[in-house]
Amino acid sequence: MGIIRVVTGAAGAPTKMASYDAALADAGIHNYNLVTVSSVVPTDATVEFVGTAPDLGPAGERLTVVEARATISEVGRAAAGLGWATGPGPGLFYEATGTDADSVRSRVEAGLDAGADLREWTLDERRVEVTTADHDGEGFATALTVAVYGESDPIL
């Protein structure tokens, strides 16, 4: 299959959607139409944390993603965590959101454990990324951590 890139973004803006769009821009994936899938890593995929996405194709095309996104409007911190576990076969992504990064990380790790146990898979290689966005109370703040499968595909 190829590579699955994990990217992160955090931003604030006057509206909920604008803060989400700005966080997507921070991650480098704001010019694509995101199609969310559940959380299975194909056997032949490599998962790599890159932070900000490289050019993945023309604007307006489709990107397949697993997304953790937290948006808040009150003073505080948004936290969006995505973890992945791989082994000799397929792997898993798990996502969690909240306002406390440590709690989000713990819930992602627990989800990976539960998902591996459910499937009876050996998933020895694991990583968790938690993105945070601090908010001063003006408008909205969004944090996101997104796994992007491959490159973009035409929609039409």
TrEMBL record:
Its cofactor is pyruvate. The keyword Lyase applies. Pfam families: PvlArgDC (PF01862). It is an enzyme of class 4 (lyase). Keywords: Decarboxylase, Lyase, Pyruvate. The keyword Lyase applies. Its EC number is 4.1.1.19. It catalyses: L-arginine + H(+) = agmatine + CO2. One of its GO terms (molecular function) is arginine decarboxylase activity. PANTHER family: PYRUVOYL-DEPENDENT ARGININE DECARBOXYLASE. Belongs to the PdaD family. This is arginine decarboxylase.
